[in-house]
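S., here's the first fold you wanted:
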Amino acid sequence: MKILQVTAPKEFRVMEVPLPEPGPGQVRMRIEAVTTCPQWDLHLRHNDPMFIGHQFKYPYTMGQPGHEATGFVDAIGPGVTGLAVGDRVSAWRDAGHDRPGCYAQFVVHLADNVIRVPANVSPEAVAPIELAMCVATVFRMMRDMGVVRGRRVGITGMGPAGLIALQMARAEGAASVFGFDPVEERRVVAVGLGADACFDPTAVSEAEFPLRPSGSCRLDSAVDCVGARSSVAFLMDRTIDTLALFGVQREDYTYAPRHGGLRLCGYKGHFRASAEYAVELIAAGKLNLAPLVTHRLPLSRYGEGVDLLEARKAIKVCFLPWE
């Protein structure tokens, strides 16, 4: 089978390796499509640690950092129940970057790490289930806190996570959803997916979104999908009640006296219940992941796809390992 390996920053190769066999509790998935995770792909390209204390080692694990994949169960190992050969599934959890990843024609996964997905939607609509699971963890938390339904919700970063977040805010009954992103093309996509409006955060006036401690802030709740200090500060200064921090934190955020009363909450991790929530929204027509994919390429053009991500000309790239 074919599998990609990143051999050094900005270098990769596609190799032929033996077909892997599933062991106890595992399934082999024939990969139909795999989408980029821009954070991992770009950080790996530049040997830039993903988070504090992390470092990359090259050549990188074969098939990684691919982990957002959909396909069909091709073989089943001993002890697996609840799945059958031919089931359409997506990976909802990455087993770890020390195990072969999904930039390949086949991958072996723990059966617990895949989930059945609707058969009547495009591959692009179910490949990014893992990311949808992550965002769903935030929205399940916010739903339980009672801070989405009927609220005015702001979301920074109209990349893949932000575009999922605005749809989940809609699905959870937000009264209005406002997006913020400096890239015009992404703002257009956001409005097409249900945002009431989408603004360039560098050009927002105080009249449009009054600053704390004014009592006239337009945002009741918010989700940051960027992680940068400036993005978090933008929402902290304009949100009345609750801010969920989803973006990967790499620097300190300042909670100042003017933020008194603002609640901050973080990302709790990977949960199968969150993956099931995302799949249910897809099946109900309330979550569409396909528009996140702006380009489709064969796996052999991986470098070209990451170029598009780096130039911010792509939101997600879908690689097709059989082309």
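And the second, which I think is the more interesting of the pair:
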Amino acid sequence: MSKVYPDAPAALAGLLRDGMTIMSGGFGLCGIPEFLSDAIRDSGVRNLTVISNNAGVDGIGLSVLLETRQIKKMISSYVGENKLFAQQYLAGELELEFNPQGTLAERIRAGGAGIPAFFTKTGVGTIIAEGKEVREFDGEQYVMERGLVADLAIVHAWMGDAEGNLVYRKTARNFNPMMATAAEVTVAQVEHLVPVGQINPDHIHTPGIYIKRLVAVGAERKHIEQRTTRKRSAASMPAGAGEEV
């Protein structure tokens, strides 16, 4: 049976339900499975728990699910770029489980590896450790963190083949590979879908055994989270540039 589906709604058909837990890959706006999150919004499912480093920015990525109030709880590390995320949390309209960023990544990796819990020094003596087991090892205090698993993971890859073997590109490799292993079902959107055998086996980041469905989405959506520019010096400008006509 083919893993390749014609579009994002088809790739998610039959997988979505109210109250489920979804992992969503990416870092900031890099490597986010935007077509799949848009399809989740359009499906109308509600009361979702979403595990993601952040929630995109206003109007982009997971933020569209916040706009429609489809997310009940976020398990995240970073809120800062999304005003709606912060507003809903501060107003008590959104549950939020904060994690140090490295702890979040390790919780996901542990879940994918079948590790139910681990101990880390990060967060000891802070509100992060409240209500959690703290144990001493070699004279140092460590807090126990639980591994994370989800009903569904949605990930974004730069390249994939019809068997679901995936290659991520640069910063988009953050969170996507771990999440692909930590869910009951993983659906991938890929920019470039290539024939089986075209990807060098040594270059594969996520083996196809983890991917149940995928959809080719192209590379037309490239958002910039923080656009910063500086004035070009006269010496670096092409001849005639900036002259009045």
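Why I say that: The mean pLDDT is 91. The two ends are 62 Å apart (CA to CA).

Talk tomorrow,
H.
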